[in-house]
Each structure stands twice: as C-alpha cells, then as structure tokens.
Amino acid sequence: MMELNPIDEEYTKEIEKARRELRALIYREKCAPDMLRLAWQDACSYNPESQIKGGPSGWIRNEDVLERQENKGLAKPVRLCEDVKAKLKKVSYADLYQLAGVVAVEVTGGPTIPFLPGREDADESPQEGRLPNPDKKGASHLRDIFSTRMGLSDKEIVALLGGHVLVRQTYVIDGDNKVNKEIGKREGNDSSETQNLREPSQVEKKEESVAPKDKEERDPWKFDNSYFEKSLAHATLNMDKALTEDKKFRKHVEHYAKNKEAFFEDYAVAHKKLSEVGCNLKHPFMFRNVPPEKLKQIKPKAKGVLRTVIIAVAVLGYLRKKKSSQVKT
Q1: Which CATH number fits domain 9-275: 3.30.70.260, 1.10.520.10, 1.10.10.10, 3.40.190.10?
Q2: For bias kind Basic and acidic residues, which ranges apply (predicted)?
Q3: Which of 22, 24, 237, 292 has a Cα-to-Cα distance from 77 of 20 to 30 A?
C-alpha cells in the first residue's frame, strides 16, 4: 500500500492552484481525452498480489513505460503536466495525474468528482500488460482487471467505461482502420496529435489562461452517456461487445443509455474509487499532519457540534410529531 504524501495547508493550496492550472491547460491544449487516459492508465496497473503493485503513483512518467505500446500517445499529456508540475514543487506526480483526470471530466461537461490528495510517487515501473486491452475478447477480461484486482462492482465497471466517450479518442489499435475512422484519426498521425478540434476564435485565443465558462459551446469533446447509446446500436471493439453481450453488464448499459443523471452519479463514484485504488486516503485530509495536541482539541469540538446537531434534529422531529397529533385531534 502506498504511503501518504504530507498534507498541510500549503499542499492543499497547491492542489487548488494545480486544479486551476489544469483547467486552463486542458482548455488551451484541447487535451481532455489525453488527460483522462493518463489518469486511467496510471491507476489501472494496480495489482495487490505483485511486489510492485502499481496503481495511481505517477509511474506512468517513466521513459521505459511511455515506450510501451499500451501507453502510446501518453508522452504528450505527461509533458503538458510537467509544465504544471514545474510551478508546483510540492504536488506529487501521482496527485497531479489523477487531478488532471478529474478536471478533464468536469470541463467537458461531466460530473464533479471528489478529489482527495495524498498519493506518493513511485520510481519503479509495474509489469507490462496489466492494462485493459480494448481488443481483447470477453467480459472476464474486464472483471479480472477491474473487479478482481481493483474491487469494482459490475455496475462500477460499466459506469467507469462510459468514460470512453472521451478516452476512445486517443486509442491506437494497430491494423484496425474501422476503429481509427470511428475515433476521428487522421492517417499517419500519432494518437496524441489527432484530436479533430476546431481552431479557437480570436476571443478564445486571448483567454488562453482562463478556463471556458461555457464548456459545451467551446469544447466539442462532450462527456455524456452517448457511449452506451452507440455501444447498444453498434459495438465496435471487443470491450464494447463484452458490455453489451454479458447479461450482468448489459442491464447497466441499457440503464445508463436512458438515464444520463444516473450514469453521472455512478461514474463519479467509480472514477474516485479507481483514482484511489491501493492508496490509504481514508482519513479527512484536513486532519493530516496536524500535531497530536491540536488534534485532541479539534476532535472534542467536532463531537460537540455533532451532538448539538443530533439533539436539534431530535427536537424538531418531536415537535413535528406533536403538531401532527394535535392536527389529527
């Protein structure tokens, strides 16, 4: 299990600054799909049974890892994150990459995902071949990775993979021209450079350091539930087919295709779970690195406030019940 990064007031401020920097960066570079894929790839390597467990620990930045076929196209988002990291010395790469994924979803119209910092960077690279293979057949492949290794339920697996509405834009499937056409690639270009986005207007160019106010108008990459609608109509990759052909998966696909709100709610839960897999981030970060003597002062106050709230709720409940009985009589 990865250790906690020291969390104090300064670190928390840097995390918020990183969030602002990432919003501006993602808007300016039109790289939301790359950032979400970067966060996913860094986390999906987790294997609790291995000596080098992997998981969201910043290992994806290692040169030997970026050269792997499964990580083709990730050099660009790693380089872009390096520009942000240079301004924020305290923030770990692990936190930065996962925050980039959270922000990528939010700025493209997706749900707000709670983010808890404290991930420790790892220097060693996990074994190759742990990541999901979009061309591999069968629902068992998905369950082996996301359920057995990471503890996600079937519903959470389906919800998480709904993020392919963005991530699919960056896939490189050798020899599969049909997939390449579907995800809008231009022949001969690297996946990280093939996002077919319109050029920003003159006004947008002047706002390069400011995140867009209207995400849907300015960013043609939109996070929604269309992945499920398209998968039901015509599953392209074996991963899509696994979701629609497996009965336990399919019921969730059908539900999310009809209900975007339910998808957003469940996606936020699944994404957060993936971003924290293998990390000890259960304790509220505002209490981390607080001296023991101060923590002893904080806890009684918190308990006192909670006790007051409970009493107030009980009194209100009693008064409502009493008023209701008086009305009946």
Answers
A1: 1.10.520.10
A2: 201-218
A3: 237
